[in-house]
Amino acid sequence: MAQVVKRPKRKNPVERTRLPTLPPATRSRVALGLTAAAARGRFELQVCRDCGAVQYPPREVCRICLSQRLFWRRQDGMGELISDTTLHAAQELFFRERLPWRIGDVRLDSGVNVIAYVHHNVGAPPCRIRIEAALDRSGQAALVAMPERGRPALSDDPKLREMTCNPRARKILVTDGKSAVGQAVARALAAAGADLIWIGMAEPWKKSAGFDALRELPQAKVVPLDVTDSRSVRELAGEIGGKVDILVNTSDCHRAFSLAARRGVETAQLEMDVNYFGLLRLAQEFAPTLKARAADGDANAIAWVNVLSVFALSNYPPHGTYSASKAAAWSLSQNLRADLRPAGVRVINLFPGPVDDEWDQLEMPPKLSPAALAAALVQSLQGSVEDVYPGDVAQDWLARNLESPKTLERELGEFDR
Amino acid sequence: MAARGYDDVVLAAPVTVPYVRYSTHGAHWFLGRAVAGLIAAAKIPKRQIDGLAVASFTLAPDTAVGLTQHLGLTLRWLDHVPMGGASGIVSIRRAARAVQGGDAEIVACVGGDTNHTDSFRRNTANFSQFAQDAVYPYGSGGPNTSFALLTAYYMRRHGATREDFGKLCVAQRTNALENPLALFKKPLTLADYLNARLVADPLRLFDCVMPCAGAEGFLVMRRGTAEKLGLPFARLLGAVERHNAFPADPIQDRGGWALDRDALYAQAGVGPDDIDFLETYDDYPVINVLQFEGLGFCPEGGGAEFIRANSFEVAGSFPFNTSGGQLSVGQAGAAGGHLGIVEAIRQLSGQTLGARVPDARHGLISGFGMINYDRGICSGAALLAAA
Amino acid sequence: MKTTKTKLTRRKSAAKANVRTPAAPTRGDLGALLVSGNFRLVDLTQTLSPDFPTIVLPPEFGQCRPFRMEEVSRYDERGPGWYWNNVSFGEHSGTHFDAPIHWISGRDLPNNSVDTLPIAHFIAPACVIDCSAQAKADADFLLTAALVKRWEQRHSRIPAGAWVLMRTDWSKRNDPVAYQNLDDTGQHTPGPDPDCVRFLVNERDVLGFGTETIGTDAGQAAHFAPPYPCHYYMHGAGKYGLQCLCNLDLLPATGALIVAAPLKILQGSGSPLRVFAIVPAE
């Protein structure tokens, strides 16, 4: 049964805001492979290239044939819950503050055992389950035993809800509502049950019908925000920073030029000023308060979302300077992630391929509609991921990049210009 | 090929450094007190100890090497045995071969740890790579989680009940009441056991060992040496160890003893029926049951029935954990694997602190250690006889 | 005070003195005026702030960078005893000056950039034409040559070398949206029509044209022939522009001296600047 998430009560000013605690985040280097896959919403385990044996916990050599040729491969997660327990005592503060916890021992069909959280919809052992990889509040992979059928959401379980950043009943800042993507994101968040959506508006004199229509959303509140203006960012942070649960950075400047096609640096500077320095300004002004409010009861700060671009992965010459600015933003987002992780605030990056908007006009389909991008964004908050590559082009680039970044670079360099 | 017997290897000088719940001392203090106790018990100068086997979780950053210099020992044989609750048995095996082969004459086997207010959490958090990667992040229940899963499985699979486990715990407490060094001084009733606060379903408070600080030690030497020194001793008839037994089992409901018990009894020349008392590694009651089964006292899965058919006090039908065991004495870290050995030497050499098993000729000790991931990896057992 | 034609102008066709309103003081009596203290100063400058709008062009064009300010230190670890900022802005942001080189029509003129233009031009008399009523009624109001001539009849002939300032009270629109006044057909702000600009340049040899709006041209001037006539003709004739002025309502129709000295930027096409008027007492 779905958990009904209610609007949190107003803050009691007499009570101290608790400090965030985290589940243990220490992992061996090899175990981070599990996190790397979970960050993209995948459950992967090591598999031996020589004998095919699946491995868990992560290790350096095959448990059967001692081969060193282990690689991470996606798993269906099917298995049997063979035993479970509900913990009423825990050594770490994070768990202690949230007791009790249901933990299970699962025998996967692939022949390995995993210790996992057990979703409350799962029955008593023995029973068939499906393991999913999620991210816990420390940002590390956590395995969850889900019912074999029915596909309930992680957030239906009140304990596992913390592994998600469900926007329901949340207060959310969308930094730029002027763009088609920003508008779609605001609408999607409203549909997903956001309690309040502040919508940033830069250069108010530039009007758009789509933006004006946003004002009709009952949850929407338009606020002045120009991410190229430090003062504007600071002033908004001063006004609403203490209330934002989720910050969605939709600010984007895309001028679609290759290096050879435009003289000077002015346009590239503008892209950098919005895409990179904009993120930096937002991070400097909003991140400290998000961290301070990471354990603020049910109305705590939980996530930061950046709409980046798959062009950040490898420079796409027809959009060369834009690619560079998004690559810079991506890099900075990793800094932000490291900064927010100790508080348990998740940074989610979206890497869409070409979007069906003005600046990707000359890109061939398939293109991602702003609504589809917004849906992927909301889904990423409802789920438990860090990196999202929405759409076919993004998935294609990701696969090619994982296989060989150099090959992708060369392929992208061959585009007709 | 059968292992060579242990000829005339004996164990002597049982020493316990009294346990405390928390201590401000380091592990070196407890291990040092244990070695001092061994020297005092054996009435030998320190330099006569020429071999040392050490087990400790809290000695870091030192190992047995650092302890050697710390204690001013000059040795010709040294071993560090990081096998948790199997360390005592493994130390016996290593030391016995050393004195048999003449590599050492008198080997001090010590196990001990300190316990600061936060050291159990730290030890658990850094216990092993697999635990750190794949267990501790899930609720951080430590061994409670692992044994809760094994216990729940065993109960479901084999029909054991809380009352069955409770009967063992109550009997151990009865034994402990005779032991002046046991930390638990109050009687335990079955109702106390059943109604204690939940820790990790189905485990409640008295299913879980209490971490504390302390140390245990004994000497391994040849019979002639002991006789020359005038020391009471117990003879080593046989000893086995096994690591990572049955890796294909989906969950641990048997340990390595099942693979080794025939060899053990063959080496010792006695069988289960000849055993007068059993000292198990007992951090949680379910693991006792796996030892009953693995060591051949009852069939696999027959543990519950065995418990119902027997009584486990010192004077009972199956004297068991006669000092009270870890569940009633306390778990002084790695000393937990030495506790039963020291008690067995006391029982067989007439030096008991508490109740004595009448006419005990043969005692069996077993060790179990290191929940590295989802199961205990190390198991072992040693069979001792009275002189 | 003596009323006479100014010597500050460099243009040869001096305007006839008009007895009905006072003319600006000459350089000779400027000194005496300042010593006498018998004048008031009027600040004609908008505050440079990040919120102040800049000209809107289609996004594929290069853009005027709005005024931005980044704190360098504020008595803190970045500079314990001092406060200062780094600022950045386009040459044409805030209250700013347009030099002839700004427009393609003025690109080949001598001394056409802010670093080379004659310093004598930094102080010049102003003729203020009040169009506030018309601009209030019609955002697209255009100043015509006929209206200028009617103004001359009421006041005096515009002297050569004088600033012509078009007062619209547009600067009183504090809301940047109302100030920009954009709709999907572009900007709607008042300005001069092409004929008026030709008249001021050819017939009156003015120093330049100043407005309260974001450009010297009207909002819809992209559709005039030629497009942006005020820029085209003024700069083509070596004349200047001042835009985003304020407080023009505090100036007399004639008699004020404008001090407008742009930053000395190498090859600069213009610059934000502090503009003020010295107004002799009545």
- The helix-and-strand class of chain B reads alpha/beta
What's the assembly state of these chains?
heterotrimer
Q: Fraction of residues of chain B in helices?
A: 25-40%
In sequence order, what are the helices and strands of chain B, one letter per element? EHEHEHEHHHHHEEEHEHEHHHHEE
CATH architecture verdict of the largest domain in chain B: 3-Layer(aba) Sandwich
CATH secondary-structure class of the largest domain in chain B: Alpha Beta
Largest β sheet strand count, sense and barrel closure of chain B: 9 strands, mixed
Largest interface chains and counts:
A-B, 41 and 38 residues
| Integer-rounded radius of gyration of chain B | 19 Å
Residue share in β-strands of chain B: 15-25%
Provide the domain count of chain B.
2
Return residue spans of chain C where pLDDT drops below 50 for at least 5 consecutive residues: 1-20
**How far apart are the first and last residues' alpha carbons of chain C, in Å?**
9 Å
Q: Output the CATH homologous superfamily of chain C.
A: Putative cyclase
Tag the structure with descriptive keywords:
heterotrimer, A: 417 residues, alpha/beta, seven-stranded parallel sheet, five-stranded mixed beta barrel, 11 helices, 15 strands, 29% helix, globular, C: 282 residues, Glucose Oxidase, domain 1, nine-stranded mixed sheet, 25% strand
What would you note in describing this structure?
The complex is a heterotrimer of chains A (417), B (387) and C (282). Chain A has 417 residues and is α/β, with parallel strands linked by helices. Chain A has two domains: 32-162, no CATH class; 171-412, NAD(P)-binding Rossmann-like Domain (Rossmann fold). Chain A is 29% helix and 20% strand. Chain A has helices at 32-38, 93-96, 180-191, 209-214, 230-240, 266-275, 277-292, 320-340, 370-382, 392-403, 405-412; strands at 44-48, 54-55, 70-74, 78-87, 101-108, 113-118, 127-135, 141-147, 171-174, 196-201, 220-224, 246-249, 303-307, 346-350, 387-388. In chain A, strands 11-10-9-12-13-14-15 form a seven-stranded parallel β-sheet, with helices on both faces. Chain B has two domains: 9-118 and 213-233, Peroxisomal Thiolase, Chain A, domain 1 (3-Layer(aba) Sandwich), CATH 3.40.47; 140-211 and 238-376 and 379-383, Thiolase/Chalcone synthase (Peroxisomal Thiolase, Chain A, domain 1), CATH 3.40.47. Chain B is globular, with a radius of gyration of 19 Å. Chain B has 387 residues and is an alpha/beta fold. Chain C is of the alpha/beta class. Chain C has one domain (27-63, 91-280): Putative cyclase (Glucose Oxidase, domain 1). Chain C is built from six helices and 15 strands. Chain C has helices at 27-36, 132-137, 145-154, 176-180, 194-203, 229-236; strands at residues 39-43, 68-76, 79-88, 96-98, 123-130, 142-143, 163-167, 182-183, 186-187, 191-192, 208-211, 240-243, 256-260, 270-272, 275-280. In chain C, strand 2 and strand 3 (79-88) form a beta hairpin. The longest helix of chain C is centred in the first third of the chain and has 10 residues, at 27-36. Chain C is globular and about 65 Å long. The model of chain C is unreliable at 1-20 (pLDDT under 50). Chains in contact: A-B, A-C. The interface between A and C is medium-sized, with 17 and 22 residues.
